[in-house]
Design goal:
Layout: H1 3-17, H2 20-26, H3 32-49, H4 65-88, H5 91-98, H6 101-108, H7 119-139, H8 148-170, H9 178-197, H10 206-233, H11 236-242, H12 245-256, H13 266-280, H14 282-286
Length: 290
């Protein structure tokens, strides 16, 4: 698989994650850890289904402790914080604050062996950050004190996901099939925490059940496998910068679904985010795949 192909696969995860916020809000009032347990169970099933016809794929689960710590810690930590953020803070603002992680990935990538930040990567990342800030400011109408824990959770989640993504690059030898195991472990861990601190709330409508299934199949399922391929074999800087499309698309879906109000700054933010992504992706567009 070429680096270009892996990068393109990683980009599909960004498209799926653009539906994460709207689908999470559509699940209703299900507690954060219960929702994580249910969706990650579906995500694990999605990955294990790809093992059909590949009996040796299950051997991918035999990984060193560090791989499991990074895999489960990243998936569980990020999504627990993200689901908490969407339960306590306005969904558009929490989601946009959480999307500091693309900038962090681009910057953290400089710490990897053999990687360096070129000027156009930094310019693209900064433009994307400015666009994200404009989106955030355009949707903000002041925050109640009870919303601050959710906003803080969203902010910390950005660092957790960026760290997980960059560490995945360092664990390049761990096959993507192992992600199914990480999802299952995350589901079990989330279920244990749910049982200890939350009261079970089952979906009230068919639409909420469908939202849970859609979350598990896409944003909390197939997206992880696509992202793992992109992080390990693709251009991590391009993926980090291109991820700035996610808050724009995510906000658009929230508005279309009636969960957020349109902002006057969205048009300007769109130009900055798209332009930043194109500038940062200069390497991918200017080189032939190898």
């Amino acid at each position: 698989m070429t680096s270009r192909t892996a990068t393109l696969i990683g980009l599909t995860a960004i498209l799926m994650w653009s539906l994460l916020a709207v689908l999470t809000v559509a699940t209703g009032k299900i507690p954060a850890f219960q929702l994580a347990a249910m969706t990650f169970a579906v995500g694990a099933l999605v990955g294990s289904l790809t093992w059909i016809g590949r009996p040796d794929a299950v051997s991918a689960l035999w990984q060193p402790p560090l791989a499991w710590i990074v895999g489960v810690g990243g998936l569980f930590g990020y999504h627990a914080l993200y689901f908490l953020a969407l339960r306590f803070a306005p969904p558009a603002e929490a989601g946009l604050l959480n999307y500091l992680w693309p900038l962090l990935i681009v910057l953290f990538s400089a710490l990897l062996p053999g990687e360096r930040l070129a000027p156009h990567h930094i310019i693209g990342a900064v433009l994307g950050l400015i666009g994200t800030v404009l989106l955030f400011a355009g949707n903000s109408s002041g925050f109640a004190s009870g919303q601050m824990p959710g906003l803080i959770a969203a902010f910390v989640a950005a660092f957790v996901w960026a760290s997980y993504s960059v560490m995945s690059r360092k664990l390049k030898s761990v096959p993507t099939d192992a992600v199914a195991g990480f999802c299952l472990a995350t589901a079990l861990l989330a279920a244990a925490v749910h049982g200890a601190i939350e009261v079970t709330v089952w979906p009230d409508t068919t639409a909420q059940w469908l939202a849970i299934i859609a979350l598990g199949v896409g944003p909390v399922g197939a997206a992880f496998y696509a992202w793992d391929i992109g992080m390990k074999r693709g251009d991590i800087r391009v993926l980090g910068a291109a991820s700035y499309a996610t808050p724009l698309l995510s906000t658009a879906f929230l508005i279309l679904a009636g969960f957020a109000k349109p902002s006057a700054g969205i048009a300007i933010a769109a130009v900055l985010i798209a332009g930043g992504g194109l500038i940062a992706a200069k390497d991918m567009m200017g080189k032939r795949s190898v």
